[in-house]
Amino acid sequence: MNNKAEDPNLWNDASEAQKLMRERQQLDDGINGVKQLEQQLNDNIELIELGEEEGDQSVVKEAEDTLKALKAEAARRQVEAMLSGEADGNDTYLEVHSGAGGTESQDWANMLLRMYTRWAERQRFKVELLEVHDGEEAGIKSATLLVKGHNAYGWLKTESGVHRLVRISPYDSNARRHTSFSSIWVYPVVDDSIQIEINESDCRIDTYRSSGAGGQHVNTTDSAVRITHIPTGIVVQCQQERSQHKNRAKAWDMLRARMYEAELKKREDAASAEAASKTEIGWGHQIRSYVLQPYQMVKDLRTGVASSAPDDVLDGDLNEFMEAALAHRISGAADAVVEDVD
User: Fold this and answer.
1) In this structure, are residues 129 and 121 in contact, taking their beta carbons and an 8 Å threshold?
2) Which residue, of 17, 50, 60, 133, has the fewest CB within 10 Å?
């Protein structure tokens, strides 16, 4: 790769050159990261030995704390190494849709929107709210986030599916326990190097007035755009910009991304399971349960990973669930390959 990067003819094809330089940078970052971990590990082991010889517990304690941080960093890099799918490194769209149940599920959808926004901020990803449809009384009917950052799609892709909430309803005057469902759909942003052909004649384009809080920032004209791809039934919508032209352009980008994601799923071993998880927002299709009453527990139904701190999870503490789901997905694909060979 270094030989290619030093080829004077490399920049004759700017897009290929940029792709090569990105890959080179990622490899450099990975190799240097491992070397730094190894060096820090050796340095701190030596510090512990030195501190024990001199009876200086403060030095030992500081080195041990550093080793704990190194362990967490090594675990994070191990997960990053799993993100080698075709589109894993891309930015991503994340859609939230409330299920049946009116205000209850719409409030739950809003909680999920906040959870993923908080998670992305913790990862230092950039988050843009592209569209939101408010509920009649509270919460949201749907919303779309654009999450920008290296491996954003790779991290979030296993979150697609139905999420179930059990709690004492704040909207029930009798304080009864309610079960609510909302769905998450994640699909990667398509860059210019990926060609997705869509016939405009296959699409219906509607404009409407933006909704949601925002005072003067809410449009008083029909600037929001919805595009329906008739052959597949895929629907995308954008109301982020005041300009209908800009919203239309972003909606086309979203549609291309959805079409690309559909093609990716055809090639992945987990496609059928994921498609089944989206067929209905209700019982039997959920990937994760969030129980706030009568006990407190968040449990992933695919991997068995659980947390007894739902408030932390709903505040964006999701990495443990994502890491387990990624490992589960990779092991499932490996098992499928073995079965094919057999």
Assistant:
1) no
2) 50
**Mean pLDDT computed over every residue of the chain:** 83
pLDDT of amino acid 272: 47
Q: Which residue has the tokens 């589960």?
A: 328
Q: In Å, how far are 133, 139, 155, 177, 340 from 174, measured between CA atoms?
A: 28, 20, 40, 9, 55
Omega within 30 of 0 (cis) for the link into 294: yes
Q: How far apart are CA 120 and CA 94, in angstroms?
A: 11
User: Residue 255: phi, psi to the nearest 5?
Assistant: -65, -40
Specify whether the CB–CB gap between 5 and 28 falls below 8 A.
Answer: no
- Map tokens 């964006």 to a residue: 316
pLDDT of 3: 67
Q: Tokens representing 31?
A: 């190799």
Is the confidence at residue 329, as pLDDT, over 60? yes
DSSP secondary structure letter of residue 193: T
Instruction: Assess whether pLDDT exceeds 70 at residue 276.
Output: no
End-to-end Cα spacing for the chain: 36
Q: What single string gives the DSSP state of each residue in 234-256?
A: EEEEE-SSS-HHHHHHHHHHHHH
3-class secondary-structure state, position 299: strand
* Two tokens, residue 234: 């895929």
Backbone torsions φ then ψ of 13, nearest 5 degrees: -120, 95
Q: How does pLDDT run across 152-178, given as a tens digit for each residue?
A: 999 999 999 999 999 998 887 787 888
Structure tokens at 226: 């919805």
Query: Which residues 6+ apart lie within 8 Å of 200 measured at CB?
Result: none
Three-class SS state of 214: coil
Kindly report the number of other CB atoms within 10 A of residue 71's CB atom. Answer: 12
pLDDT 10s digits, 183-200? 999 999 886 666 778 888
Bridge partners (DSSP) listed for residue 228: 204, 235
β-strands 286-291, 161-168: how paired?
parallel
Cβ contacts of 260-265, under 8 Å, gap ≥ 24 = 260/87, 260/187, 260/188, 260/190, 260/194, 260/196, 261/87, 261/187, 261/188, 262/232, 262/234, 264/85, 264/86, 264/87, 264/188
